[in-house]
Fold each of these.
Amino acid sequence: MPSSRRTATGVAALSAAAALVSLTPTTASAHGAVFNPVSRVAACYAEGPETPRSQVCKDLVADSGTQPLYDWNEVNIANAAGQHQALIPDGKLCSANREKYRALDWARTDWPATAVTAGSFDFKVRVTAAHSGTMTVYLTKPGFDPTQPLKWSDLDATPVAVYATPRTATDGYYAFTGNLPARTGRHIVYKVWQRNDSPEAFYSCSDVTFGTGTAARAQAPTEAKIAAGAELSTVSHAGHGGDEQAPALSAGTAEAPSSPLPLALAGAGALTAFAAGSLLIGRRRNSSAS
Ligand SMILES: [Cu+2]
């Protein structure tokens, strides 16, 4: 991409992100991604949104553009509130039923993967912001067919790791140990990270291979790569963007939104409150105009 065009794109993305952040009433910040085993979106981001190497990452960019990759630390549902299976249909687990991330649901066997073995496993999650909550990590059952869309029933009900996420991650990572049961061939590690200070949750698929395989080795983004792409992200690395719901709205402590934009982001409760507020303002305007 010519540098002038890239700059223009960057400026546009920055403006959009700044607009969203300025309209968001709270200042919590954006999330992260599993780096070991590296998630699909993070693996493609590591290859480079403008220069993907693997065919599947090239196809992702051709289908969905580069923005899903620049927003590698998103893949969220703002109002999940623990209702993961109700909100995410079978076949949409990797995208969290987000159209923006639809390519992540592709049931392909050429996703860059991490070679693993049964036993203790050290999970690593790069967090661009820490959130208090619970990270639950699942593995697909024996006999899982990676050529079929991932269903909830494909996941072994017993998590391979459960981690209470602290409110801080001083080095930018969560690290915790889990236990991988014996499997053969290609499997998917599915992560659900539910905040407990807001209804928001984050999801990801990481491809792993047990035993010897010829799968492309997935790599996690380097810190330099993360820094290089930060300005093109619509998910601010120091504040929420995307379709983020401001956590305070759900807690009932936020003031009524002053712009129509948060209306689209807010839950039904906030929606009702805002509608009532608008009605009052409308009446005042009417009375002052008459
Ligand atoms: Cu966040």
Amino acid sequence: MKKEWLAAFGQMTYGIYVLTSGHEDVINGMIASWVSQVSYDPPLIMAAVHPNRYSRGLIEKSKAFGLHILDRSQKEMLSRFKGPDPQKKFQGLSWEPGKTGVPILKHCLAWFELRVKEHLEPGNHALLLGEVIGSGCPASGTPLTTLDYEGMYTGKN
Ligand SMILES: Cc1cc2nc3c(=O)[nH]c(=O)nc-3n(C[C@H](O)[C@H](O)[C@H](O)COP(=O)(O)O)c2cc1C
């Protein structure tokens, strides 16, 4: 069946974030764009994460994740956070563990540390609702968004 709605989804704009996770000695980071604030009080953010992601298991174990807003000039992060080797993703980057142990990157426009409050499975991505337990705005600049990205994240797999 032709998915005529796919082209319409292609016109939606999102931020492009680095979502970090960690459990015991293992840390990871992935690019995520299906992310949004969903409440002011308490401050809540949702991220949609596919079950195939290595990050997903780490988040389920630690019940926490980190989210980073990048500057436009940090587009190289898109290729850095692809691939199978979590250690390599952080090579040469400054970061420190947050309260929950998730990596918090030092060089970004803003970051959040989130404790997972709810986990819903409405479709092929899990909707992770995280409550903000830490945040920072280390720099100013122009946030990286899907307007700076040539491809489209379809979320198919
Ligand atoms: C622009 C862009 C946006 C993405 N957004 C998401 C997303 O919102 N949710 C998701 O599960 N994967 C998303 N991905 C795919 C993951 O970043 C990718 O599968 C990554 O390799 C997963 O890493 P991991 O398996 O080490 O956790 C996106 C990829 C790109 C390039």
